[in-house]
From TrEMBL:
Native organism: Salipaludibacillus agaradhaerens (Bacillus agaradhaerens)
Gene3D superfamilies (UniProt xref): CBS-domain
Key words, A-Z: CBS domain
Protein name as annotated: CBS domain-containing protein
InterPro entries in the cross-refs: CBS_dom (IPR000644), CBS_dom_sf (IPR046342), Diverse_CBS-Domain (IPR051257)
Lineage, uppermost ranks: Bacteria, Bacillati, Bacillota, Bacilli, Bacillales
């Protein structure tokens, strides 16, 4: 049985709730990612995605200097490093999410994306199902 700790990305770049949208966008560009976890004192408090920036930032005519906390998602689903990969794929499909922060307590220690699940051959089928279900209903993307 493969656990998330075996496939998660460990060195996750983060921002604080006081960083601004421009800084986050530049970090996304630099890291080639579409989401950045938001942490305060090592505690995961939110996530901001490229979609959040567009929908809650640009489309609402907010300036680039807008603090991240005004556009981030703060209703998160998380997992622990000991969660089974199939269980994570099921959670991601059911909750319509593409990225799953991995926490110990409330401290962020990694992240697993749908792509990570797809790369792992044991979960290829579950990742395909998750992608199909996530693509059908856009309510809870983060």
């Amino acid at each position: 049985m493969t656990m998330l700790r075996d496939i998660m990305t460990n060195n996750v770049d983060t921002c604080t709730p006081n960083d601004n949208v421009y800084e986050v966008a530049m970090k996304m560009k630099q890291d080639h990612v579409g989401a950045i976890p938001i942490c305060e004192n090592d505690k995961l408090i939110g996530m901001i995605t490229d979609r959040d920036i567009v929908v809650r930032g640009v489309a609402e005519k907010r300036p680039n200097s807008t603090p991240v906390q005004e556009v981030m998602s703060d209703q998160l689903f998380t997992a622990t490093p000991d969660m089974d990969v199939q269980e994570a794929a099921k959670l991601m499909a059911e909750k319509q999410i593409r990225r799953l922060p991995i926490v110990e307590g409330q401290k962020l220690i990694g992240i697993v994306s749908l792509g990570d699940l797809a790369v792992h051959t044991a979960t290829e089928h579950q990742a395909a199902i998750a992608l199909t279900e996530i693509s059908e209903q856009p309510q809870y993307h983060h």
